Amino acid sequence: MEPIVEIQNITKVFKKINAVSDLSFSIHKGDVYGFLGQNGAGKSTTMRMLLGLIFPDSGRIIINGQEFNNGKRHLLRHIGAIIERPDMYGYLSGWDNLKIFAALTDRSIPATRLHAVLEQVGLKGREKDKVKTYSYGMKQRLGIAIALVHEPDLLILDEPTNGLDPQGIADIRELIRSLSRDHGKTVLVSSHLLHEIEQVATRMLVLHKGKKIAEGMLSDLLNPNEMLVQVGVIPAGQVQARIAASSWQPMLVGASADQLTFKLHKDNIPELNRWLVMNGVNVTEIRSKHSLEDHFLSLTNDQATATRAI
């Protein structure tokens, strides 16, 4: 399947600072593509290049099979985006804001489409209220509606949960899932909140100081041989003596009054649970501590160490 967007070896330099260095990746139809990196990693610079707000010093951007450059801005009709905070007219209603932005497109967009997109983002019933009365989360939803109104192939969301409270973050997370699951949208979403991206992305890229250091499915990025597994037991002290005489001892990396921590392959978790129960241990919980954030920090720390060594 031909990708919706293909980035080929793009580089962007600002005053001798490599904001993006030889970056390549592709986004396919149906992806929720997580664009991960700390602040200053080059995420927003890459998105701005993808939207034609700035252009790369070298490399190619291909949208639906055509190379994008200053002479082919018509290709942007395939993309909808929110970069940073969406700006709207606070004294107008959500409906009027959406109608104004719809009129700026090169398409004639009927009222039925406006109603549909407002329902998609969960603003049905509040569309006649002035935007200045909206919460920040509602403004984000309206911004997403504006980005979706012309039915783009790709939706770009730059740090969409910034500034939101926990409920607002959960709402935007569920909206992204719904747009992908229920409406077949392809989404590129950037964030430094890795635990949030981990819950919505189907594929992801880790960016560090403008360079790609990892890309793939979540299962590809995490090393199943190095799962940190926390096991709640009663009491832990007596269990340790039994573990010391077993094959599990090399995998035990930590212990407290009521919890043991093992480093092992994920396929060994059921076997460990059976062994504990068969040996009379009361197991209160088993949960994985390893996450995308652990892996990301490991990757970026390794990269920083390698850079210092050079």
UniProtKB/TrEMBL annotation:
Kindly state which keywords UniProt assigns to this record, in alphabetical order. Answer: ATP-binding, Nucleotide-binding, Transport
**Highest taxon of source:** Bacteria
Q: Which residues form a coiled coil?
A: none
Locate the ABC transporter domain: which residues? 5-234
Name the Gene Ontology molecular function terms of this record.
ATP binding
State one Pfam family annotation: ABC_tran
Signal peptide location in the record?
none
- Family, similarity comment: Belongs to the ABC transporter superfamily.
Q: What is this protein called in UniProt?
A: ABC transporter ATP-binding protein
What's the source species for this entry? Nemorincola caseinilytica
Source organism phylogeny: Bacteria, Pseudomonadati, Bacteroidota, Chitinophagia, Chitinophagales
